[in-house]
Amino acid sequence: MSKFVRSWELVGPALLVVAVALVGTTTSDSLQLQFRSVLVTASIVVALHVFIGNSGVISFGQVSFVAIGAFGAGVATTPVDVKPFAFPELFPFLKELELSNVESLLLAAVLGGVYALVVGVPLMRLSGLSAGIATFAVIIITNNVFRNWERIGPGAKTLTQIPETTSFLQATVGLLIVIAVAYAYQRTRQARMLRAAREDPPAAQSSGVDIYRQRLLAFTLSGALAGFAGGLLVHLAGTLTTEQVFLDLTFITLAMLVVGGIGSLWGSVLGALFIAGLNAYLTEAERGVRAFGLDVDLPSGTRLIALGAIMALVLLFRPSGLTGGRELAWPFVRRARATPGG
Amino acid sequence: MASAALEVENLEVRFGPVRAVRSLRFSLERGEAVALIGPNGAGKSTTLLTIMGAAQSQGGDIRFNGQSILGLAPEAISRLGIALVPEGRRIFSDFSVEENLRLGFLGRRTADGLEEDLAWVHSLFPIVEEFGSRPAGQLSGGQQQQLAIARALVARPEVLLLDEPSLGLAPTVVDGLFDALVEIRERGVTILIVEQRAELAVEFADRSLVMRNGEIALTLSGDDPFDSDRMTTAYFGS
Amino acid sequence: MTEFIQSLVDGVALGSLYALAALGIGLVFGVMRLVNFAYGELITAAAYTLLLTKDLPVGLRIILALAVAVALSLIMEFIFRPLRVATPATMLVTTFAISFMLQNVAVLVFGTRGESMNFLPDLNKAFEIGDIRIRWITVVSIVAGAGLLSATAYVLNRTDIGLQMRAAAADFRTARLLGVKATRVIVFAFALSGVLAAVVAMMLAVQRPLATPSFGFLVVIPALVGVVVGGLDRLLPATIGGFLIGFATVIISDLLPSESRVFLNSALFGLVIVVLLVRPNGLFIQGAASGERL
To answer: Closest partner residue to A129 among C104, C269, C294, by Cβ?
Structure first.
């Protein structure tokens, strides 16, 4: 396949993202927040894909890295004069800290990556359901600690007074960066080895693939990207609670990944934009909005039910997700059919 | 004319691009014993599994006493009167011998004659009664094979399918098995047996079908002498 | 010393409840290889049934709770039929989606604030043996737990349908070849797990009188963890795993100094991680660290 055609796997999703962002800028103010939120959520989903898509191991814990990135960046950008009132218990060195927006995003990525490395060292030996439960334990512990340890953050209180610096531009550029990094990684030899291990572990091992090492690499990178997305998240509305980076977010992002189709970057972007877009539309519909020429006014709570139902339906009737796990292909190339049928 | 007990007509079974069974056709008369032999990968086991509804076919038909059974679920086909003794025996090792047998007769079409059939099975395979409450996993290979056949018989099948019963067993044990099979045939059960040990199967059966690459390459009737040249050609092609 | 015995007794009581939930999850997994995240919603549905029947006689309330849980479970069986051939990831997320959806139906209909079910509140009274105070509900939980576990064991080991269920769990394909009706066995497993869910709901309703949308979900998470820790593949280890999680929750909670009690979940799940690292296939099943089990 020519380089041009291959690059479509990156360009395609990127174009869709830009298109969505452009549409978003043209909508009403209240809808704009939803659109920006969609872009940030998509960053989280792509970060999930980097690990889950390439390794085939389901991790329920990635939102832990979003959390540490979010709280880290949030605490770091809270103005120093506000800190003693907002978080009286904070460690002294944290009280002195004040970073710029971009610095805080970098910090968020570093925090996410380091935490993922620490967690990954013991956990990457596990597979299947044990890995799922162990990573689930990580999110439970992370949430428990952030909720109750007031020396590193606001604890159960809401984190507020954060500068709202995640503009459309920042959200879009951020998502594009995450997609580019994910794409660059999945073209490396290391990622290919990991995918080989996903398909046939014994064969990969006997070919010399160090499954543990490759998983750890993907996990750490995924953690860094998730942390970065967390940094974007906290600056979205300027507030954050521990509940926002716990089970609901875990479920939603995982579902987006699966609905889009595990194993495909295009799938993660498509699933995220589709579900998040639907979510945003339904949120507005609950408030009674005039959109696309229709007057819609749904009782509150139907949004989540509709979302759950739609996700379940997609999975029941197309279990491999919207993309079937395949990358976006340049539609005008004739390709020899390797096997008959799908 | 009464319809054959089992008829396979133009059966097609594909796994992806591979045609495991190609336009296969043969039939079994009531009370016949037919052997299905041939090299590895010829599609013999696949044929048995497809008859039992455990594998999907992409074309053709399978008829039992004139009634099409293609597409029925395995449990439905089993209840109609066909039983399979699967490759590798597949007994439940953690269950007792008795429980294994009980599973067999829970799949029975009718409770009538259960006593009789049980008595007959016990006489054919005494170990089944002897080892009643022991875990089936403790039995030797040959004994497990006997249990697997007993389990199938307790359902009082009209047609008995056997997939490589001699696999991994010592010659004397295998002889015992085939003696039992002769008795089963005399009882009127129609038998289709897939076997690696061609000579044994050919000797036992009324007819032998040699399968290669998913289709029948040669048919031997009981009176044909065992001709190695013809067999080699059938197995490996000219 | 008395505190220790007190902890033990409470631990056994909570352990029995989680063991029942674990058994419910394990039964369905055994015949269908499906981890049903939405199992908690059966418990929640039973709880809301108790809420809605506040003015009815106790016997009727119990029957209705059982009926609702079993009915919902059978509906789930039907909905999950396409999942019989899906990957574990898809199964997990789909059942999670159903769980999520049902929880939000509850939010829509009943709101997020809990309402009191007023189910046998007198069982919260305690009696004393020496220095130990034991609540009646603790005794009932242990008895009900042990009773149901024995009853289920009896059904599985001594009845024909139980034999067929065990066969389907051990080797589904061969069981079908022997005439075991796949659908009948699966429906029965779902029905039985519905009964267990209703009992768990009733025992909990006495001690946690508020019916909330996440009532059952909060039980299913630890129970599921317990099932995996115990060993997903076999029913007995899975049930014991559920028991151990419940038991450990109480013991750890009582061992922690009171300022640290908020970190109960961290301690508990930290322990879970350690166990999984040492015994990835479950506490009671031998096996090396590598190899996918699902």
So the answer is: C294
d(CA C287, CA C279): 7
Query: Which residue ranges make up each domain of chain A?
Result: 3-243
What ipTM describes this predicted complex? Answer: 0.85
Contact check, Cβ <8 Å, A128/C292 = yes
Across the interface, whether the CB atoms of C101 and A308 are under 8 A apart is answered yes
Whole-number Cα distances in Å, A55 to A193, A206, A214, C104? 9, 17, 8, 32
B99 CB neighbours in chain C (<8 A) are: 163
Q: Closest to C86 (Cβ–Cβ): which among A255, A302, A319?
A: A319
CB contact (8 A) between residue B94 and residue C170: yes
Q: What predicted TM-score, i.e. pTM, was given to this entire model?
A: 0.82
A123 backbone φψ class: left, alpha, beta (φ>0; ψ -120 to 50): alpha
Q: How much is the pLDDT for C288?
A: 40
| Main-chain phi, psi angles of A221, to 5 degrees | -60, -45
Q: What Å distances lie between residue A232 and A46, A218, A242, CA to CA?
A: 14, 21, 16
For residue C84, being part of any structural domain is answered with yes
* Residue range(s) defining the domain that contains residue C128: 20-214
Domain annotation covers residue C225: no
- The answer to whether A342 faces chain B, any CB pair under 8 Å, is no
> Number of folded domains in chain C?
1
Do A133 and C272 make contact, defined as CB atoms within 8 angstroms?
yes
User: What's the pLDDT tens digit per position in A14-49?
Assistant: 888 888 888 777 777 777 887 888 899 999 999 999
C30 vs C44: CA distance, rounded Å: 23
Residue B238 has pLDDT above 60, yes or no: no
Q: Is C130 helix (H, G, I), strand (E, B) or coil?
A: coil
